[in-house]
UniProtKB/TrEMBL annotation:
InterPro entries cross-referenced by the UniProt entry: Far11/STRP, Far11/STRP_N
Single GO biological process annotation from the record: cytoskeleton organization
Comp. bias (Basic residues): 257-266
Annotated protein name in UniProt: Striatin interacting protein 2
Gene: LOC109071879
Annotated Pfam families: N1221
Far11/STRP N-terminal domain residues: 3-273
């Protein structure tokens, strides 16, 4: 029985609206009203009798500049109110909009305005201050239970920064040249060496950029082109269930032994069986004839038992397709991707074959086949047809040569790519990142968590005041 396909798109990110919905799912509903109230309170004090949408571009820039100045005050509560007002602008001044389209339009407009006025750099400085705030950490440790109130400032700042990154990252058809230039400038700013908390996907790219990089590097190293785009192949594959465990297979065999004439249990086929077009019922007739020979002698030859007739003649109807037949992708019979064989695999195969048939080996020689039987020749020929040399193997070989002959080979020329810059920025603090991830894993296991541990993964779902 074929598994039904899933409505799932294999990609780097979800749609823009889905990403925003996921962000808002971590926000309590009263906080939306709180952001609006703080914005309207400040906005009405400086702009009388008008709404944000009615202001001109210059008036909006002047008001955002005033908010930027207010972010530098020493009072923590005042800074939080201003940050909530900025968050309301990034959310699209939803109280003044009538439709979801209007909210998305004004959110995009306000985000580019905030970035142009330097809000993101100011938020980054405030985030660094919150991270280095030891007083807040010590006060949270003394509390009996950590709640949402202990991470209010962090959540507000991170929400604004995420909205700005996600909005600027997505390119729209109607974007002006100024917005396109701002996107490239923002991408360059995030890729600077002194910015370690950069969004990786925005600065390094996704699947499409990775595929283009692979093609370009293989051409530079004089390697054969890629046989296919593995990401496109995975996107077009049908949904597959994991293979059955050993206990499930034993139970199925026991059920078949108890009653041969009972209907065979339906087993989900994996994706490879789907491409090979296997029929789970095609071998039932032969199996029943071999296991039950007395059924042939007990009746007239060629006659089918009524119980077996339901299984053989009336198989269950196939499930209706979820998509039109025109949208289905047809693959050739066999694997959906081209098989790849490393040179080490061929060497290992020849080494084993020579030890078996000749009694000695020839090292790394993969061309000499003297003394081996004909089937081994055909196997080696097939393996060489699917030989694949990856970029990593070439780089590893180059690194080994540099280590063996450092004086003659000289130093390796490392290209300053965004990935290399990210690695240089993360390397000094890599141990701290690993320790932080380990603490989160330990906090997820209640049995291994110490009572004095300050990390609580439930802090984002607990109310501010515990009953």
């Amino acid at each position: 029985m074929e598994s039904p396909n899933l409505e799932f798109e294999y990609g780097d990110t979800d749609s823009f609206t889905a990403e925003l919905s996921e962000l808002y799912s971590y926000t309590e509903e009263p906080e939306f009203s709180l952001n609006r109230d703080y914005f309207e309170e400040d906005f009405k004090n400086h702009v009388k009798g008008r709404r944000w949408m009615e202001l001109s571009m210059e008036e909006q820039r002047a008001y955002v500049m005033r908010l930027l100045d207010a972010l530098e005050v020493t009072d923590r509560d005042k800074r939080l109110k201003v940050a909530r007002a900025i968050l309301y602008l990034a959310q699209g001044v939803f109280d003044e909009c009538d439709t979801e389209t209007d909210v998305l339009y004004w959110s995009r407009h306000n985000v580019f305005l905030l970035y142009d006025m330097g809000i993101f750099t100011a938020l980054l400085e405030l985030l660094s201050m919150e991270i280095d705030n030891n007083q807040a950490c010590s006060s949270a440790v003394r509390k009996p239970a950590i709640s949402l109130a202990d991470s209010t400032e962090l959540r507000v700042l991170l929400s604004i920064m995420y909205l700005m990154v996600e909005t600027i990252r997505v390119e729209m058809e109607g974007d002006s040249p100024e917005r396109k230039a701002a996107r490239e400038a923002f991408k360059t700013e995030l890729g600077e060496k002194d910015f370690n908390n950069r969004p990786v996907y925005f600065t390094l790219g996704g699947f499409e950029e990775l595929q283009e990089m692979k093609v370009r590097m293989r051409e530079l190293l004089n390697l054969p082109p890629l046989p296919e785009d593995s990401i496109k192949v995975v996107r077009n594959m049908r949904a597959a269930s994991p293979p059955a465990s050993a206990m499930e297979l034993i139970e199925q065999q026991q059920q078949q032994k108890r009653g041969r004439r009972s209907r065979r249990p339906l087993v989900k086929q994996d994706s490879l069986d789907t491409y090979n077009e296997r029929d789970p019922f095609k071998n039932d007739d032969a199996r029943d004839e071999e296991d039950d020979p007395e059924d042939v002698d007990s009746g007239i030859e060629g006659e089918v038992d009524p119980l077996d007739r339901d299984v053989i003649i009336q198989p269950p109807p196939p499930p209706p397709p979820l998509r039109p037949p025109t949208e289905r992708v047809s693959f050739p019979k066999g694997l959906p991707w081209a098989p790849k064989v490393r040179e080490k695999d061929i060497e290992h195969f020849l080494e084993t074959s020579r030890n078996k048939f000749i009694g000695f080996t020839l090292g790394n020689d993969i061309d000499t086949l003297v003394g081996l039987p004909r089937p081994i020749h055909e196997s080696v020929k097939t393996l060489k047809q699917h030989k694949y040399v990856s970029i990593a193997e070439v780089q590893i070989k180059r690194e080994e040569e540099l280590q063996q002959c450092p004086m003659t080979m000289g130093e390796e020329e490392v290209e300053e790519t965004p990935a290399e810059i990210l690695y240089l920025g993360m390397l000094p603090s890599l141990s701290q990142y690993v320790i932080a991830l380990l603490k989160l894993l330990l906090a997820a296991a209640p049995t291994s968590k110490a009572k004095t541990d300050s990390i609580n993964i439930l802090a984002d779902v607990l109310p501010e005041e515990m009953p």
